[in-house]
Amino acid sequence: MKKDNGTLIEKYLDGELSPEDVISVENMIKTDAEFAQEFYLRKDVNDVLSQKKIVKMYLNLKKLIRSIKKKK
Fold this sequence. Notes:
Blueprint: H1 3-13, H2 19-31, H3 33-71
Helix pairs in contact: 1-3, 2-3
C-alpha cells in the first residue's frame, strides 16, 4: 500500500475529492485488490469510530437531560 493511498482513501471517505478523483478511487477499488482491501479496512474502521461517537453523544445527552430534570 502506497503512503498516498491512505490519504486518498480518507479524503474519499470524508467526501473531499473532486468528481474525477472519486471515479479514480472507485476504479482502483475494482481493479487493485490490495487497494480495495485497504479501502474496506479503513471504511470499516471509520464506520466503527462513527458509531462510537454517536453512542458517546447519546450518553452525554442522556446525562444532560437527567441533570436538567434534577434542577426542576
